[in-house]
UniProtKB/TrEMBL annotation:
Gene3D superfamilies: FAD/NAD(P)-binding domain, Fumarate reductase/succinate dehydrogenase flavoprotein-like, C-terminal domain, succinate dehydrogenase protein domain, Succinate dehydrogenase/fumarate reductase flavoprotein, catalytic domain
Encoding gene, per UniProt annotation: sdhA
Enzyme Commission number, as recorded: 1.3.5.1
Keyword Lyase: no
Family matches, as InterPro entries: FAD-dep_OxRdtase_2_FAD-bd, FAD/NAD-bd_sf, FRD_SDH_FAD_BS, Fum_R/Succ_DH_flav-like_C_sf, Fum_Rdtase/Succ_DH_flav-like_C, SdhA/FrdA/AprA, Succ_DH/fumarate_Rdtase_cat_sf, Succ_DH_flav_su_fwd
Main location (coarse class): membrane
Protein name: Succinate dehydrogenase flavoprotein subunit
Amino acid sequence: MNIAKRNFDAVIVGAGGAGMRAAVGLAESGLKTAVISKVFPTRSHTVAAQGGVSASLGNSEPDDWRWHMYDTVKGSDWLGDQDAIEFMCKQAPEVVIELEHYGMPFDRTDDGKIYQRPFGGHISNFGEGKPVRRACAAADRTGHAMLHALYQRNVRANTQFFVEWLALDLLRAADGRVLGVIAMELESGELTLFQAKATLFATGGAGRIYHSSTNAFINTGDGLGMAARAGIPLEDMEFWQFHPTGVAGAGVLITEGVRGEGGILRNASGERFMERYAPNAKDLASRDVVSRAMVTEINEGRGCGPNRDHVLLDITHLDPNIIMTRLPGIREISIQFAGTDPIKAPIPVVPTCHYQMGGIPTNYNAEVVVHGEAVPGFYAAGECACASVHGANRLGTNSLLDLLVFGKSASQSMIEYIRRLPAAQPEIPQAEIDRTLARLARLDGQKEGADVHETRLAMQRTMQNHAGVFRFKEMLAQGVGKILAIAEDVAQIQIRDKSKVWNTARMEALELENLIEVAKATMVSANARTESRGAHVRDDAPDTPEHPDGRDDASWLKHTLWYRDGNRLEYKPVTLKPLSVDSVPLKKRAY
């Protein structure tokens, strides 16, 4: 096969918030920068983020980045690395104001400052005060506005976009250095080697491993699959956030900003039940706490509807003008997907898979780190990366902040690295190219085998049933066996359409090969972690005086590392020492 080759200073895979923020820094510094994306950049999944981006600007009331750091460490159930968390929270005001200067159309207060709303888990005075207004919002379309602002800035900087291309595999030199990626143009089916001095993965999450998800169909864990096949471990993959408010039956996201504006969760009897689970924060407790409370209400028979399988999110008490100006998209989603006008009746909601806390292991410089050493030329940022600022549970609005802070950090690290390199670059080893060609040849030559759609559905249902909001010892063990069996089917999937031009069947098969790596990492890691922490809650690790919330710090205050080779697990310590302030001490997490 004749394979074209292109050379760049930097190659970025993924055109969401992290990828485009990094591209701005690289292109504006004069480096030749390529961005590879399966979809047009402004259709990346960042467009679905609704509620806001967190920063301690203090525009409506006093706030402090140290309070933000405390909330993030607490929200992570102390599994977050405190050096990276300090770095992110301290940088937050700067990157948000920078984004504003790029043209981001934030909502404004009466005196012209960026409008901020409360969000779950964001509390004043080191968790001792009341919910604080920290989420900088553009109505309920914050991610949409962010993507357009960043895309326009990249057009100005002459970033080169390769739209509707699918990256297939990471390319590495014999010494382990990353040399770029091999990618397929979807329109023609042709392959191209993108050789680069530095490569950034900003490929987003993999929520499509679950049957019910707020994630777009493009969220297939491509960066994670490529990293795993290249020998890079995946970190903390047992931790998946289930957003409390997906539209019942549809999974479409209803932003936490609805509760930030005053929305209330109610059960079948109309009770505001969160007062029993989080007496102080109530409906604005962290997402894992709210999700478990909702599932408990449903499991104990207090769910709503004919099947008692959801609860209600009530904003009928709010001024209709607030709903139409601050939450216009949510009203539209509710009418379209729930058949309910939230001005007149509550929205039926249920927890649904939303966010991946784990990912490719990095430090706060966005360098990919294995066994304490940075992998030369390889960087990751955004949801596909694990810095780890989210630990066992992410606070709402910290995801968009993660994109900005670590997208910028990645660009700065890559610029420094590229400028230190000699002019001559090593050749890409033929064995690296042959590995991808063999995958494609197997797919094209397969005459019989598993159906892609059926196999993907079996994986999604297995993940939903065996590693959902609540997890059970026997179910996790069974889940490992089922996922490994499904992985064998994935190795034999077949496609009937062997054509090259816009072959979506081939693309979906290749995406499934990435998804199954994430599913294996999740199930194996979850089965091994015999405690409850953050979003990972097990029935055999209940709340006791020795282990508050079922958390076992003596045994499990450590990060999981899953290796594809043999489904092997290793562990590494959590960084409890921040960069410049005192450590946030361990304590029971309560709201």
